[in-house]
Amino acid sequence: MTLVRKVLALLPVPLRKLLFRHRELLKFLTVGGTTFLVTTGVNYALKFTVLTAKPVTALIVATIVATIVSYVLNREWSFRTRGGRERHHEAALFFLISGVGIVLNSVPLGVSRYLLHLETPEVSLAVQEVADFLSSMIIGTLVATAFRWWAFRRWVFPLRGERFPDGRATGPEVDLGEAA
């Protein structure tokens, strides 16, 4: 018995059923948490070293790195019971949708810095950094995550047995009750 199964066995049945019903979302959010840490680490490493004068660029680079990690983890873990597309088509859609997510993630930081002028010397360095963190790492991430969850499930990793928007079947149906 795996560690996860042992932990789940300790939970009350209603909570266990709820977690099981939403396991795909929980996996997606776990991948998101992991890539949030990657984004944050790379962003601040760049922002405080080679891209000091370009915080939006630092965020975009960090998000691209995290997106690559996200594709691998989502493909192989979060959405492994889904699919039906050829790998290159799936990857192209994933990165296209992630590109939209990068824009959505970056817009709040751009608004904070360039429309609201929450940058030095207009405000203190502490205010600038809090505004940057809240706008990009919190607001931007939440908006982009909601969009990605919806778009990945709809277009990149459709449930087997569903149909693509053009009417083609996605593949054989899978009993998700038995899939781990």
Topology overview:
Layout: H1 3-10, H2 13-21, H3 23-47, H4 55-78, H5 87-115, H6 125-156
Would you mind describing this structure in some detail?
The chain has 6 helices and no strands. The protein is 71% helix and 0% strand. The protein has one domain. It is mainly alpha-helical. The relative contact order is 0.11.
Entry summary:
This is Flippase GtrA. 71% of the residues lie in helices and 0% in strands. By secondary structure, the protein is mainly alpha-helical.
- The total count of strands amounts to 0
Structural class: mainly alpha
Number of H/I helices:
6
Oligomer description: single chain
Termini, distance in Å? 13 Å
- Helical fraction equals over 70%
- Mean pLDDT, rounded to whole units? 85
The low-confidence parts are 171-180
Which descriptors would you attach to this protein?
single chain, 180 residues, mainly alpha, disordered C terminus
